[in-house]
Amino acid sequence: MAKTVNKAYNDGVCMICREIADASSFSARVGAKTMDDLEEICTMAFAESSMRMEDSEVANQKGYKLDRKISIRKPGNIRVDTECSAVIGRMLYHISNTDTTKTEIYLSLTEVRELEDSDAESD
After folding, report:
1. What is the pTM of this model?
2. Which stretches of the chain score pLDDT less than 70?
3. Are 71 and 46 in contact (CB under 8 A)?
C-alpha cells in the first residue's frame, strides 16, 4: 500500500483577493493601493516553490515577469484565477498564471507594489 505524504505549507500565509471595482470614469483599472481596495476571498498557508526553466519560458511566452511561485491547498469551492491578486505581508502580487492539480494550486506571481496603510492620507 502506497504511503501518502502530506505536503507542508509552512513558508507563510497569503491572502487571495480581488480588486474592488473602482468607480473611475471609463472603467480603467486604477490598481489597489491599500487593503481597502481589495476584497478578501480566502487566506491560505503556502509553500514556496522553486521556479523551473519551464516556468520562466511560460512567463516569457505569456508576457509577464515571474517574481515568485507558491503552492496552496485547493480552497474548496473558491475560484482562484488570474483575475485574483495575492497579498503576502504588505506586498501585492498579481496572479499571472495558475496550474491546478487534484489537491493544490501553483500560483505564478508578479510583484505589483507594497500596499500603503489604509488610514494614511492620500493628499
Report:
1. 0.83
2. 1-5, 21-30, 119-123
3. yes
Among the listed residues 92, 96, 91, 94, the one whose alpha carbon sits nearest the alpha carbon of residue 56: 96
- pLDDT value for 123: 44
HEC string of the chain?
CCCCCCCCCCCEEEEEEEECCCCCHHHCCCCCCEHHHEEEEEEEEEEECCCCHHHHHHHHHHCCCCCEEEEEECCCCCCCCCCCEEEECCEEEEEEEEEECCCEEEEEEEEEEECECCCCCCC
- Nearest in space to 49 (alpha carbons), one of 9, 81, 97, 103: 9
